[in-house]
Amino acid sequence: MTFQWTAVATFLYTEIGVILLLCIPFISPLRWQKIFMIPLWNKIANYWNKAFLTIIVLLIVLFLDAIREVKKYSAAHMTEKVANINTNAFDHIQMKLFRSQRNLYISGFSLFLWLVLRRTITLITQLAKEMGIQVALGIQVTNTNEAAGKYMEENEKLKQALNEKGKGESELALEEANKKLRQETEKLKAELKTTSNALSKAKNEVTVVKKQSEGLKREYDRLIKEHERLQDLLEEEDDKKDQ
């Protein structure tokens, strides 16, 4: 295997390892977000898009070159098979065809997993943001409920205090206090409704992101099985050539 294809194969195995690491269930998206916020990653993020596009272009070029090699040696393989002139030449072409097919699989899977890796990181980041918003909204709802309970307690204390004063003054003061409390209650209800709507929206977005992540994980598992099957086929081809 030449240097360039050794590098592509190493890159493919690295992609598989990183995606498996990102799929570990006990590491939450919030923890991954904290890892991505490390100053070192912030410096790398400035060059992330350029590096992503550069690697995409390189992998596409290698993939197209592998397709060209497969077509080239497939045609030569059929020609030698029909002619059946030189056994050594036929074996040499068959070996070249096998290598070109191997390179095609390596570059193709590397290209696909590179796109999957970027999408996975994007979904994890979005999910972490939505979870952060959900936590903040939950705290806001709790604070709003506590404030509403506090106002109700003050209302009860005010009623008791007014009952001890004169009847005329107590009715006037109670009416003013009730008016003020009704305004505060309406305001709190409006804030609580707004907060509840925002929380429901955040939950729906989190559910959508989770479904996308699960679908991506299932697709990744299928690709891993396909990769293992292809590796087995390649090993069988190697065994046949060795024999």
Can you describe what's shown?
With 243 residues, the protein is mostly helical. The protein has one domain. Helices cover 92% and strands 0% of the residues. The protein is built from six helices and no strands. The protein is rod-shaped, with a radius of gyration of 33 Å. The model has no long low-confidence stretch (mean pLDDT 78).
Please describe the structure with a list of short key phrases separated by commas or semicolons.
243 residues; mainly alpha
C-alpha geometry: rod-shaped
Structural class: mainly alpha
| Structural domain count | 1
> What does the radius of gyration come to?
33 Å
Annotation field: number of helices: 6
Helix content: over 70%
Largest sheet: none
Q: What is the averaged pLDDT score?
A: 78
- Gap between N and C termini: 20 Å
Indicate the low-confidence ranges by residue numbers: none
Chart the SSEs and their pairings.
Layout: H1 3-22, H2 29-36, H3 39-45, H4 48-83, H5 87-163, H6 167-242
What's this, in brief?
The protein has 243 residues and is mainly alpha-helical. The chain has helices at residues 3-22, 29-36, 39-45, 48-83, 87-163, 167-242.
